[in-house]
Design goal:
Residues 16-259 form the SMP-30/Gluconolactonase/LRE-like region domain. By secondary structure, the protein is an all-beta fold. It contains no helices and 25 strands. A hairpin with a 4-residue loop joins strand 8 (75-80) and strand 9. The chain is globular and about 45 Å long.
């Protein structure tokens, strides 16, 4: 097995880089800086652009009709990068102003799933995964999470993965997923990340069905087989990698966002790229195209 190459790409340093999605039609990576309220775009030529949203933005997906769908502090929105216009769809947690959206992913039918978390006031486990349907209706999924994360789907679309990053939980679950209805079945333990250095942050699945976890706080990416075994660890030059996503013309480059704040004191000089975007090549596998939101 060849040794992977990890390189920083672009010139952006984010406070909390997250939400990376590669769009095969754009040939570009879209990602966010959550507390800065920024959407970034890094295309195959290396060109970078950014947009200010005006509030914390947790995750996004490309919209089949054009533009983006965003999950922000104030709910789901459609965003037009050409004009900067933002149109509200729904705020399923309007009664919880201390919550915001965090991680998200689309299923194979173009439904957009995104999870919330409390990020203001006293921490508590009141995060929920919400489903935004193509008709723009919103449905409630699993709840009771401290830090919703790790949303990804198996290659056949019939298994959903999700996690809780909180230090007291640091667990990844999987559940059967009904593609016809968008319903999540009973969850079961997939992987307890106490077995590795980092807690579970963002994730993606490769063409072999393996789950790639950003080990936040652990300086590493972890590849977990469908039967829950670690079969590969990739060391990263930053302490807090946050979201991997396959991209590039052949979907064989693993892009990784990272977090530039909350670093362990004394480690700053070891990780000058903290908050940057990275590309990992030479992994010997490929990713899957990400479905656009169908609404």
């Amino acid at each position: 097995m060849t040794r992977p190459v990890v390189e920083r790409v672009g010139n952006v340093t984010a406070r909390v880089g997250e939400g990376a999605v590669w769009d095969v039609e754009d040939q570009a990576l879209w990602w966010v800086d959550i507390p800065a309220g920024l959407v970034h775009r890094h295309d195959a030529s290396g060109e970078e652009r950014r947009w200010e949203i005006g509030e914390a933005v947790g995750c996004l997906a490309r919209h089949a009709a054009g533009g983006l769908v965003l999950a922000t502090r104030s709910g789901f929105h459609l965003f037009d990068p050409a004009t900067g216009g933002c149109t509200s769809i729904a705020d399923p947690e309007v009664e919880l102003p201390e919550n915001r959206f965090n991680d998200g992913a689309t299923d194979a039918r173009g439904r957009f799933w995104a999870g919330t978390m409390k990020d203001q006031g006293e921490p508590s486990a009141r995060g929920t995964f919400w489903r935004l349907d193509p008709d723009r209706g919103v449905a409630r999924g699993p709840d009771g999470f401290w830090t919703t994360n790790g949303l990804a789907f198996a290659p056949d679309g019939r298994t959903i993965y999700f996690s809780d990053s909180h230090p007291s939980v640091r667990t990844i679950w999987r559940a059967p997923y009904d593609l016809d209805t968008g319903t999540i079945g009973p969850r079961e333990l997939f992987f307890d990340t106490r077995a590795v250095a980092g807690r579970p942050d963002g994730a993606t699945v490769d063409a072999d069905g393996c789950y790639w976890m950003a080990g936040v706080g652990g300086w590493q990416l972890v590849r977990i087989t469908p039967d829950g075994r670690v079969d590969r660890i990739v060391e990263m030059p930053v302490e807090r990698p946050s979201r991997p996503m396959w991209g590039g013309p052949r979907l064989d480059t693993l892009y990784v966002t990272s977090i530039g704040v909350g670093l362990t004191p004394g480690t700053e000089a070891r990780q000058p790229g903290a908050g940057g975007l990275f590309a990992v090549t030479g992994l010997g596998t490929t990713g899957l195209p990400q479905t656009r939101y169908a609404g």
